[in-house]
Amino acid sequence: MMDRYLVRYFLAVIDHGNFSKAAAACNVAQPTLSVGIAKLERGFGTPLFRRSNRRVELTAAGARLAAPARAVEASFAQAENAVRGSAASVPLRIGVLSTVPAEWVEAIARRLNDNRPGRLEIVEGGERALHERLRRARLDIALTIIHPSVDRLESEPLFSEGYSLALSADHPLARRTTIAAEELAENAMIVRRQCEVLSETSRHFTERGVRPHFSARTNSDLRAIGYVRAGLGVTVMPDCFQADGMTRPKLEDFHHTRTLGLAYRSDLDRSQEELARSIAILSETIDHLIR
Amino acid sequence: MMDRYLVRYFLAVIDHGNFSKAAAACNVAQPTLSVGIAKLERGFGTPLFRRSNRRVELTAAGARLAAPARAVEASFAQAENAVRGSAASVPLRIGVLSTVPAEWVEAIARRLNDNRPGRLEIVEGGERALHERLRRARLDIALTIIHPSVDRLESEPLFSEGYSLALSADHPLARRTTIAAEELAENAMIVRRQCEVLSETSRHFTERGVRPHFSARTNSDLRAIGYVRAGLGVTVMPDCFQADGMTRPKLEDFHHTRTLGLAYRSDLDRSQEELARSIAILSETIDHLIR
DNA sequence: CTATACTATAGGGAGCGTCTATGATGGATC
DNA sequence: GATCCATCATAGACGCTCCCTATAGTATAG
User: Fold this and answer.
1) Is the pLDDT of residue A31 over 80?
2) Chain A hits for B84, Cβ within 8 Å
3) Per the database entry, which stretches of residues form a coiled coil (chains A, B) (predicted)?
4) Alpha-carbon dihedral sign for residues A134, A139, A140, A142
5) Which fold has domain A4-84?
6) A214 and chain B: CB distance < 8 Å anywhere?
7) Which residues in chain B touch residue A79, judged by CB atoms under 8 angstroms apart?
């Protein structure tokens, strides 16, 4: 019946010159695309490509189909744009957990801007604030901590990580992989006030008889990192924070973890499809960042 | 993803003004179409139709989609025509069994001509001749007798029928539903030379001691019917022949049947899709004729 | 208030699009 | 000329989703 996906396969083969690359471009396996083209050819009763082992070239019938096939794809694109029309002015609102590295947020913003039409709004906030905004439909997607409890939101976990110490690179214990709380008794500490495990951290130290004094309290991870590198003190942060001049040894017996992922409403008035694409972009970006 | 079938559903709703008729036009059940439109609306994140119980009307977004959607369908049609281009000059060759009523052939020819682009060739012939032509790829489809044996051809049975007598409406036995061979001893008979069960018929009579004389021999069913109505004699024909001035009582204990259907090659160089459409048209036409 | 016409929802079944694994083919290389 | 590499085709299994029937919900008409 010459369905849309077949048109895409066909155009991909033309554009990439062979089946394998075309398949990759369509996000399908090579045999899938092979079958797809065969189906088109069966449908039309005539070959569309002349296959040689070196390259694939259009037959006469294929050449006649090429331009109209592009017209098909173009008309689809036009139709999809037409209906968005008004909706395009509604910005996509992304919430990002405050305790996500600034570079990550930057990368996310760049990728979304480049690969998606329409305006973008980024909101930072703590876990609870983001959750609340989502619940009230003030956000479309949030990159935040995902809990097993399903609290009425869709969610897609992306990765889990622990928390570890942040030490200046010239700290005496900087090269150690694991450090016990007791060894840090003499160190000043920097308080990241927005930290999700702040109370757990403080309990961890007090339970081991360590009562450090606090050299700084800040809401900004960037500043906290600055303080650490300046030798002002040590702190505990999610593993994903990395910077030159700073090492990240484990804090012994501190096993808290967080799972970051995307949370979103499924009952949105916004386009499901746009949402899905944005989610895909986000998740791909993060995948790329954590490796 | 806004697939092609969804575009068709959408346009059908616009054209028919309600979901139920649109579904019928698309050959799907109403819930199917309902879900399809819902899927489009979910995909776009906005309603396309305003439903009232009396009619459905386009929303603003739906109205924006309407024209581009038609463009999509048009571009598909154009693409499909483009690739046929050369193939369109090859006529579709239909074989029709000689013992199929002339009105049927006429109806078939008309339907195919109206609903299908390209030239048409109709060949009449006996069962064996048609089969031979099919085998040699001199025919695309044949409306003929289908046997359970699968002799390398695809086939689609359409209906089975028996054979019965054909009597002039003013024949003394015309109102009877069943007549025994013996009762026809004094009648003249018309020989339809092309009849598939000619030898079985003649044996049926001779075995019962009836040796009628033959008032006419013809290859034309139309003429045979004319002779019957003129009172020249009686004959045996497939049940499907019906005409004013002629009745069709059963011949007692004559239980032969034939199954008419479509036979075709599956390994054709011709377009599978065109073939499938032609077969669908044919089978629909016959369905309509036999009721 | 019943009857009618229409759309939405639920749940099961089947077709087909997709996958992985494997085969087949032909050009390049030593 | 044997081997390797790149390419497309085929086979069989899996799983998604399109489609169905049955049913509910809702508004208009008589």
Assistant:
1) yes
2) 44
3) none
4) negative
5) Arc Repressor Mutant, subunit A (1.10.10)
6) no
7) 2, 7, 65, 68-69, 71-72
